[in-house]
């Protein structure tokens, strides 16, 4: 049985090593996405004008008035002091062609005092240019930058499947790491003085044992993040009732209909302020998101700069029908069924933000560890593969030599006869 599990672990490791290596390194980087992006692109993050800032709503009005080709789909309501206000935009439909206007950007950085656009970029585009690097790495982390195929997000599905395999293989790896009860101490040791292959083996085996629980959390949350709708929510609903997710529920949301009106962002913010008070939320409305394809608004409640949620279970979100203002649902961290809270905790755990700065440091270190485990596992496999090849070659050489000896002896016997 152990031999079969060793082979299974070996081939699963080979199949997933490159994916996990890349996911580990990129995960270590994007734990600091905001800080790194700001360091690389100060002109995109630092406001040019040191003057009182306008509201996000006013800035969005100015941006849309200056360029009728675009519509603002997401904006923070208040800029961080000294920073630009970054908006997400999409093209409007050109009445002449019935096609979206051509835009080569999806994100803009606006001076909060003047409404001047300081920078533009297409978020997540495949590019190593400094302005694009961090968003590219962020998107690569969970999609490998693979395209949609037949309406399926192939990259997200692939990384989710890799996460499932990783979960299964982690259980096998732990069992293999303890071959006997008497030798359990060896599974935690690192033979630093030996170096070479011995240290490589210990980094892979003992390193994995020391952080096994954390690896399982990262693997599970990666599955939850990538395959929430098709896999995780149906499984969780078998054990706990789940509150319908307004974003994914076709019974709640509807596609826009011809002639539908759209409430102003100002009206939605007003509704959000009233709803936030009714829910006793501590944070004010912090950002507005408009999903045209769902004809719905979402409002996040957070202070300026805290759109990711710096600590805890993240930020509250509420949703409204864009035409009628009818409430569509809410996601309040820490509230709901056991299944609801399980789903809420996935991103904070995966990003480390549940523990604040310390959690992000831990996740960054864990990403490097995942890359090291993948690399050492591959090195171990290559060494054993070469050893098997040498052994097979030596055996073949021995058989050839034996055959030659037999042929030579046979030839001598025939000559003597």
Report on this structure.
This protein has about 425 residues and is an alpha+beta fold. The protein contains 13 helices and 12 strands.
How many strands appear in the DSSP assignment? 12
In the sheet with the most strands, the strands line up as 6-5-2-1-9-10-11-12
Distance between the amino and carboxyl termini: 56 Å
Shape: elongated
Region (Disordered): 392-417
Protein name: Putative iron-regulated membrane protein
Keywords: Membrane, Transmembrane, Transmembrane helix
Transmembrane segments: 12-32, 157-178, 209-229, 361-382
What structural keywords apply?
417 residues, alpha+beta, 13 helices, 12 strands
Briefly characterize the structure.
This protein is an alpha+beta fold and 417 residues long. The chain has helices at residues 2-30, 33-40, 42-45, 56-66, 133-143, 154-176, 196-210, 212-226, 228-236, 265-278, 338-344, 346-351, 357-416; strands at residues 70-76, 85-91, 93-94, 99-100, 107-110, 117-121, 148-149, 152-153, 285-291, 296-301, 317-321, 327-331. It has a domain at 1-41 and 136-239 and 349-381.
Topology, pairings included?
Blueprint: H1 2-30, H2 33-40, H3 42-45, H4 56-66, E1 70-76, E2 85-91, E3 93-94, E4 99-100, E5 107-110, E6 117-121, H5 133-143, E7 148-149, E8 152-153, H6 154-176, H7 196-210, H8 212-226, H9 228-236, H10 265-278, E9 285-291, E10 296-301, E11 317-321, E12 327-331, H11 338-344, H12 346-351, H13 357-416
Antiparallel strand pairs: 1-2, 1-9, 2-5, 3-4, 5-6, 7-8, 9-10, 10-11, 11-12
């Amino acid at each position: 049985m152990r031999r079969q599990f060793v082979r299974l672990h070996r081939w699963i490791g080979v199949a997933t090593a490159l994916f996990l290596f890349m996911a580990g390194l990129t995960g270590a980087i994007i734990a600091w996405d905001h800080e790194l992006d700001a360091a690389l692109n100060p002109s995109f993050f630092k406001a040019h004008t040191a003057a009182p800032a306008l509201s996000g709503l006013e800035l969005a009005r100015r941006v849309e008035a200056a360029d009728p080709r675009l519509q603002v789909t997401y904006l923070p309501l208040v800029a961080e002091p000294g920073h630009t206000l970054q908006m997400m935009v999409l093209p409007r439909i050109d009445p002449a062609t019935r096609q979206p206007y051509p835009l080569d950007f999806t994100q803009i950085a606006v001076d909060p005092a003047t409404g001047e656009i300081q920078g533009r970029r297409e978020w997540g585009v495949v590019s190593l240019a400094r302005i694009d690097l961090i968003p590219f790495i962020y998107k690569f982390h969970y999609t490998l930058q693979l395209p949609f195929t037949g309406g399926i997000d192939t990259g997200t599905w692939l990384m989710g499947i890799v996460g499932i395999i990783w979960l299964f293989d982690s259980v096998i790896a732990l069992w293999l790491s303890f071959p006997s009860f008497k030798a359990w101490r060896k599974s935690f040791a690192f033979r630093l003085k030996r170096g070479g292959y011995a240290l490589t083996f210990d980094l892979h085996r003992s390193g994995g044992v020391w952080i096994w629980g954390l690896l399982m959390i990262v693997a599970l949350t990666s599955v939850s993040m990538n395959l929430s709708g098709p896999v995780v929510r149906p499984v969780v609903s078998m054990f706990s009732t789940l509150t319908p997710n307004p974003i994914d529920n076709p019974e709640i949301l509807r596609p826009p209909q011809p002639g539908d009106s759209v409430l102003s962002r100002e009206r939605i913010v007003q509704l959000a302020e009233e709803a936030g008070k009714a829910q006793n939320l501590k944070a004010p409305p912090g950002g507005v998101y408009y999903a045209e394809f769902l004809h719905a608004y979402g409002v996040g409640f957070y202070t300026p700069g805290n759109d990711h949620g710096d600590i805890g279970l993240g930020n509250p979100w509420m949703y409204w029908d864009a035409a009628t203002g009818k409430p569509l649902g809410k996601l309040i961290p820490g509230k709901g069924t056991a299944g609801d809270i399980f789903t809420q905790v996935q991103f904070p755990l995966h990003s480390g933000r549940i523990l604040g700065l310390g959690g992000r440091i831990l996740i960054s270190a864990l990403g490097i560890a995942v890359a090291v485990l993948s690399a050492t596992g591959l090195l171990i496999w290559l060494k054993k593969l070469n050893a098997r090849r040498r052994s097979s070659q030596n055996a073949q050489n021995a058989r050839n030599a034996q055959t030659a000896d037999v042929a030579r002896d046979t030839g001598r016997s025939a000559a003597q006869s």
